[in-house]
Amino acid sequence: MKKINEEAIKLVIEESKYNKKNNYKNGGPFGAAIVFGDKIIASAHNSVIESVDPTAHAEINVIRKASQILNTGDLSGCILYTSTEPCPMCLSAIIWSNIKEVYYLNTKEDADEIKFRDKQIYDYIRGENNILNMHHIESIEAKKVFDKFEEITDKNMY
Amino acid sequence: MKKINEEAIKLVIEESKYNKKNNYKNGGPFGAAIVFGDKIIASAHNSVIESVDPTAHAEINVIRKASQILNTGDLSGCILYTSTEPCPMCLSAIIWSNIKEVYYLNTKEDADEIKFRDKQIYDYIRGENNILNMHHIESIEAKKVFDKFEEITDKNMY
Prior knowledge:
By secondary structure, chain A is α+β, with helices and mostly antiparallel strands. Chain A has helices at 6-17, 58-70, 88-96, 108-113, 118-125, 140-151; strands at 31-36, 39-45, 79-84, 101-106, 133-136.
């Protein structure tokens, strides 16, 4: 295990308290930070209600912020600190951004206890509940778009 | 199964072709739309490279757009159409936004074939690979933030 950045831990706890000042009317009690080397690149808090954006979790916000600051969505080598175990949305965003190391404080079971749906979403992905109805429609035209995409050799992959 | 909106299907295929004009240097071949009743509220395409934002998948973009248009992140009753089976990030965003019905065209196996990592991320969440290192740090202070949160009765939940 790499050396833990104590400053980043203090910061994610601070960020997780940010929405308290408005009695959590603007978002949940969650904070995150991204570190590269010894440097804290960015930090953020949950702003789901304030931003009118169900995707505005602390981790999504901090990944978007760090990408703007570093001018790349490829955050390889960065470490993400978060006040709570990421939900599957944030976990996947972390993987898409090429971050490989995550430190978290509260667990998804803790989040479940304070009535957030993280655990339900994990359970859905693992096939353990049916909170969403997914319908597959076969489409030759959609498949053709993928075929054409494959033919292009100088595209940018991510 | 509800009546399928053929217009929305045409639109998500159109959106999935959007990045072709720049040889997919701005993002992947993916499109999405959100429908409420008979009305298409919003549509979007993937803009991961163009927006310098690894979270800017078609579904995330369209959820953010529809939330701004409807002035709420609660998209209950809306239906999401997407050109490809959502990755776990987008799938979770759909659940967070309270959308319950999703229609998709290409599958995650199709996406795997054109070298996107959707399937790898599903496999990670199901415990079938180890592409991310998650470290839990016990924190009494972080737990206290949750305890205080629970005490507040007039907060906004989502």
